[in-house]
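Working notes for the structural subgroup meeting. M.R. asked for a predicted model of this chain before we commit to crystallization trials. I am recording the input and output together here so anyone reviewing the notebook later can reproduce the run.

Input as submitted:
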Amino acid sequence: MTPDELSRIREIYERAVSMHGPGRDAFLDEECHGNDELRREVERLLQAREHVPTWLDQPLIGSLRQFVAQPLPNMKGRRLSGYTLIREIGRGGMGSVYLAERSDGAFRKQAAIKLVLPSASTALVHARLRQEREILASLDHPNITRLFDGGATEEGWPYFVMEYVEGQPIDQWCDERKLNISERLELFQDTAVRL
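Returned structure, recorded in token form:
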């Protein structure tokens, strides 16, 4: 898809998103002028928007800004859900992600364990984490890591265990290969889940 086509899809979508029923259908008929592919893409976006959980509309960063500077205790060596935490591989506003390996040694298996900061363990964060776990557990797509398990530490800090995929952030991958906007959008489209 060209940048002009993507721009047109966005323009139609942004105008149609607040419309409903026959009014929206008439608007799409007029704007898409019989271009079935254009209409399909706009309708796909509109359908996806209807399935977005309402909690995604609420700002999270403002409520978690106070937690960013607070360090998570070193969890290296701790055991969670049959996995031993090896090293921290990522950190964000809510907590840290650790590389972990199976603890029993029966076979070698690595996982990524997302652990919420103790100071971020509010009722709101717990509710959002439960929703995130439910969403991950329900998804089955080759471009999304699988959820293996979840729970809470002895201290009550929530975590979940996910498939570990070695790689690099997608923006770094694109930058190293000097991908243009169209190539980046094509890659994004390949990695996005179609709802």
